[in-house]
Structure prediction request, 77 residues.
Amino acid sequence: DRQRRTAALVAAMTPREREVMNGVVAGKTNKVIAEGLGVAVKTVEAHPARGMEKMGAGSLAELVRLVSAIDPPPGRG
Prediction:
């Protein structure tokens, strides 16, 4: 099903991509995510686009919706 495919796609992401994606899904700003990860904001800004591409999401909202539907959510289970 779609939830299983989405979970597999998330699992195929790099650890950094997952960290950034989890921050985005949690509603954190790029600046807050960057500070938490100890990286530049520009680094954080690049990851959601790659995550959207890998997940086949057409928008950030769609990426959040796809990832939020995974049970358990990535990084929390």
